[in-house]
# Entry
Amino acid sequence: MTLPRRTFALLLAMTPGMGGRSVVRVLARNELLGRDNAEFLRLSPEALREEYKLTKKAVDALGGNRDEIVRRTQDLEQRLAGLGVTLVTAADAHYPTLIEEMDPDSPGVLFLYGNSKLLEARTFCVLSSRNTKPADLELIERLTEEGVLEGEVLVTGHDRPEYQRSAVVPLRWGAPRILCLDRGLFKVLGDDLRDEAFRAARLWRYEFDPNTDLVVSPFRPEADFIGVNNRVRDRLVACLSRRLDFVQVAEGGTMEGLIRLALKATRPVRVSDRCFTYRELRSLGAEILKA
# Structure
């Protein structure tokens, strides 16, 4: 049985040992060879390893009971569709161009839940390295409020003080947000995707509102956090932002790398003069914010 392309993409995305880039590689190679997904699922383990460069874990998973794999995928697809979750891969024409324009190693698969029109809005983020001091957290809040009141849409995360401090600001003003996750949708928003993403946000809004906000996750819906996920999340926040502000930037760290990526993509970047390396960052093209 040949599956619809979207169902097949979800099957691949949910296969253990299959990363987002592997999903895209399979879709692209099948299209190049004119191979339908039913034929792909009948391939030998040797062909899957040699032709598609799949990991042993992925090959073993695909070698299980094919009918059961398809049934589980269809059940999940029905559940996600009922909740309003969509899957987009880097092989799709509607993959967010903001990500492709900035990140040479963009996530191969994204799960989107909520107001996807926000991807076309004037987006911005306020980022800071870990262990930001209280005074800098206040600056994060102030810069976020300035952007929100200018009609821009905040892109942020949910599980670090630096992200949470910005994420509550749009709630106060009834403004939309884009939340990028470092784990699966169900792990953050609950099985029915109705929970606000963190405790402080629930003081302003008890339930998540998909008509207002958008949540983006490059991880399987049930996936929990692992150590490398925060870097993927940070890159996603930065890439979905048309303008980027930075409060503290650790030398040689993730935030400095995001500044370089953003400037290379000709995105406006502003850096607080509270940052020790602001003079070097100014020489790269960043505008300096007087705190």
